[in-house]
Design goal:
Chain lengths: 166, 100
């Protein structure tokens, strides 16, 4: 980390390799579009590179970089909204190249119907295995809010699958 | 784990990005290189502009100072030549006698 902050390209490359999966997966689930997610992820790492001197190690690096990703995703959503297109448009291409089953569509629809903060909390904690504290750092929300977002989001997703919504 | 939970876990697995993606990493690398080039270029332009500004501001004074120094050297020239000649003569007169 110190080497990357000192401007070492090799050290930053290692950070990129270690954290790209978490950032891209988070953005894919939040934006529901792999291509947009990768574009935003690239912008995220570029911003992280230029702001690395600001990272003081108070939060985990993945929380810090996901916070940048989340802000960029929000800006992207707003700009898309201004263009009259909804980010959570379900006609967007599928996230992965896998086949689109009914279950998958149901889940994409259910995830897309969650409020943005709730979707992000679910994407981080349920899918990305972030702790609630890490998600709170990344999303800039109180810990209690994250916990309730995750609980409600999970219930809605399970409900969409016809399971118990406990 | 219920059936719904299994499906949810499968959905998360499907939407997971690959653990390594050299194309993505290379893309970020190139974007950073481009940004670094832009930043370096901007720094060079600013440095050159500042240097030009400083030279424009203090250049005439520097030239005038240099001219004055050269003029003062020209005035002291004969005195310096005389000192050099006397020093040379003293060295020659005070030399060790050559051995026969």
């Amino acid at each position: 980390m110190a080497a990357a902050r000192g401007g070492s390209p090799e050290a930053f490359r290692q950070l990129l390799a270690r954290h790209q999966q978490a950032v891209r997966s988070f953005l894919r689930r939040v934006l529901n579009n792999a291509a947009d997610a990768d574009d935003i992820a690239q912008e995220t790492f570029l911003a992280a590179w230029s702001r690395l001197w600001r990272y003081r190690g108070a939060a985990s690096f993945r929380s810090w970089i996901c916070a940048i990703a989340w802000n960029k995703a929000l800006s992207f959503s707003r700009s898309r909204g201004r263009e009259g297109r909804r980010v959570e448009a379900l006609e967007a291409p599928p996230v992965s190249s896998g086949g689109c089953t009914d279950t998958r569509l149901d889940l994409e629809r259910a995830l897309g119907s969650l409020p943005a903060d709730q979707r992000a909390a679910v994407a981080l904690c349920l899918a990305g295995e972030f702790s609630h504290a890490e998600a709170a750092e990344a999303l800039g929300l109180p810990l209690g809010t994250i916990k309730s977002h995750v609980q409600r989001g999970r219930a809605k997703l399970l409900q969409a699958l016809g399971g118990p919504d406990d | 784990m219920t059936d719904a939970e299994t499906k949810l876990a499968a959905f998360w697995a499907e939407t997971e990005a690959p653990a390594r993606d050299l194309v993505f990493e290379l893309g970020v690398d190139q974007a950073i290189a481009r940004r670094r080039m832009l930043v370096d270029g901007a720094i060079s332009v600013v440095a050159v502009a500042m240097l030009a500004g400083v030279l424009t501001a203090v250049g005439p004074d520097l030239l005038a100072g240099a001219r004055g120094f050269v003029t003062s050297l020209a005035a002291a020239g004969p005195a310096l030549a005389a000192v050099a000649a006397i020093g040379g003569a003293m060295l020659w007169l005070g030399r060790e006698p050559e051995e026969a």
